[in-house]
Specification:
Elements: H1 7-18, H2 32-39, H3 43-46, E1 65-74, E2 80-90, E3 95-100, E4 112-113, E5 121-132, H4 138-146, H5 149-154, E6 181-186, E7 198-209, E8 229-239, H6 256-278, H7 285-296, E9 313-316, H8 324-335, E10 339-343, H9 346-351, E11 357-358, E12 362-363, E13 374-378, H10 389-404, E14 406-410, E15 415-419, E16 423-428, E17 438-441, H11 457-471, H12 479-499, H13 506-522, H14 530-545
Parallel strand pairs: 6-8, 9-16, 9-17, 10-13, 13-16
Antiparallel strand pairs: 1-5, 1-7, 2-3, 2-4, 2-5, 5-6, 7-8, 11-12, 14-15
Length: about 550
Amino acid sequence: MSVIENPLATIQDLFAKNWKQDQTTDKNEFGVTEHFQNLFDTREKLLQIPVLDAQSISTLPLNSLVRFRCMIQDTELSQEVALFATTVISPPDGEEKLVCHRYSDGPHEDHHLHTNPSEGIMDLRNAYYCVSVPGESQWVKEYERSKVASLDAALNGLKLDSSEPHVIPERYPFSGADHFAAVVKTHSSDVSIGVTDMVEVIGVLGASDKLASGDSFDFHDDSASGPRIPTVHAILMRKIEDHGHPGLGLNGRPEEADLQCFSAEAATIRKDLIKYIASAVRGDELAAELVLLHFLARIYSRPSGAVLGKFSLNLRDSSANSPVYPNLAQVMRNLLPKVHAMALSLQILNDNFFFPRGDEHLASGMLQVTRGTAFLLDETALEEGTLVDKGLKNLKAVSDVSLYQTLSYVFPYNNLDFQTDISLLFVSNGNSLVPVDCAVTLSPGPLADEPGSEPTEEQLVLFRKYISVLRLAEYTFPESMAKEIEMEFMEQRKAAAVAGTSLITPNDLAFNISLARLVALSYGEQTLTRQRWEHAVSLAKQIKGRGKQ
């Protein structure tokens, strides 16, 4: 049998070879992590492992190797004391040997224990409640499953009962949305893993458990209410950085070959992309370029409380029955790995939670999503009425994300602020209710009402990779350009003072520098040049010309 069908056999072989009785369980890997890292050291090899999701859970056998791309929703589940190893007598020859149970639910049915389980070597497991990545686009799901669809059906063995839902609805940010959940169990506490982190887990599929409540250390709590949640015994848990494009490197970062490719082709791709986005915003090419720059924005530094890299955007569209919101939603789902579009109506603001709340467990909120998730919010749906206390708190949560990229988690005795990196794009009739970094009033082009041509699948593949790669590309601000820009700034202020016109402010300068970074990256350039700086300054002037409302 292959390691995918029977990973526990491989683990037992490594245990028998490398485990020494005098070693402690919390400090010894006995080669398992390294062995599986070497086995699956490329994306192509990883794609051979079946994906664990709502579709495959009924076909995958217990104790098979699975791959689960997910978001950490809660890190505060109770710890579990479990068997690390026991002495068993194996039929038919009655051989006595020490068997490892670290990556399984416990002794197999065909194991005859030589000693009482309580006398075995014990292990302490940590657990995370994990959910399928919120807002993940359909093209990402299809990419993930394309290489393994035929493999799932080929696996035989004991399956999990899929007759009941395997989720706790209040632990997922989008109410009523289909999703999947699993408890990921690890044998060591990884302090680098936190809530809303996007991770890829490679592990052994375990039985479904009911989550224990209170201070219990046991997940197998039949008295607990709610559905049974599948478990995954993690062998590898990789944090996937930022954007979530499945075609990037193992850690979700762009590779050098990708950067070089888009450095050469970026100008052409950029032009085609702006044309495609313009078809969604009534032919407005300035707005389309700003939307593209918005797609490329991410938080890259937080020095002394400042938040560098954010670029929330408001498109003002006062036309009646405008198609901009639905058109943009479709474009974003076609291009971006993680998107959530919703109407920002009074009912949604008043009846839902946008922020997580914790008591006995962490209930999710709409903004508890992974970094790199793009939100499209339709304020044209906001009718007259009153925002209740919950609605006001929700609006403040959105404002905090736009201004500071932080989200408050509300607990009974205190609130904790967690850093976020969520893209916010607002469509409104007038000024947005939420402070934004950039706002423009749409100016329809000559072909505003003409349907644009849809890109081919090949073009979409190229667009998606371009956005993901350049969004995560490293960028440098040359000292020579910094000095030139500083001198220009001082000269412009002197000239404005003499002429009696309004002075360019430090905030204006900071906005232009931020815009220039995105302009440079959109051309596939990782450093600022004079040409891109002048382009950014020109854009800033056009934005100002359309900024007043």
